[in-house]
Amino acid sequence: MFFTRLLSSIGILLLYVFVLIFANTPVLNIFVAVVGVSCVYELFKCTGYRESKMFLAPSVLVPVIFAFSEYIDISTEIILVLYILFALTWLVFTYEKTTNFSNLAVLCFMTIFVSYCLSAIISLRTITHSQLHINYQFIFLMIFGASISDVFAYLFGITMGRHKLVPLLSPKKTVEGAVGSIFGTAAVFTVYAFVLTYAFSINTDPIGFFVLGAVVSVVSQIGDLSASLIKRYYGIKDYSKLIPGHGGVMDRVDSWLFVAPLIYFFVNLGLLKF
User: Fold this and answer.
1) pTM of the model
2) Average pLDDT over residues 50-62
3) Long-range contacts of the stretch 261-265 (C-beta < 8 A, 24+)
């Protein structure tokens, strides 16, 4: 299991590097679309709607449209309205058959949530600063921040963990691991700020990076716990077995759904200065 997980991790890392190298091209859009479709399909699977092809088809189109919205001359708000109208129409005509309203509501909410939040990755590419010669800087921060937060939570958890954080949702997570992750991620982000300043002559705000690192860790852990909440509700361990040793795509990118919008708003609100 360890070597399987290790090999999968290496493969995932190489994929991330590839996407970052070609972040200025439609490769990023394709990557976000595939991730979105995979997440929506896994959500359909865990709620028992996998066989409802008439409802699944328009649902998986939503994240694709959001991922390529910059190339499509159509408002994403219109797409969402049409999707919700279709969902309600579907409910009307299948009410006495197999449709479960609560499951349908969860699917609609999560489809919209996943699509919106993953599209923030595309928005991160549009952020430009005069001192940044690479505009995938913030995409890197999102992937790196979410990953390093998991690493610190694990390391502090196994070495110092004594008090369970949310045992009903994630028995292995501890308060010590969560706190260690916050300060560890904040410290790494601060070091990264100094590296940009002294190695690449890019003026940065170390305090801003420290705060961003801490907040990234907090929302990353909340994203992970939110995904666990859905899994516990439907009684599953992983969203799928697509990635050996890691589970499904949703298991790997759950924290992105929180971190990507956070970084986008953090920078656009002027809280991270260059």
Assistant:
1) 0.91
2) 81
3) 261/116, 261/117, 261/120, 262/215, 262/216, 262/219, 263/120, 263/124, 263/138, 263/141, 263/142, 263/145, 263/212, 263/216, 264/120, 264/123, 264/124, 264/127, 264/138
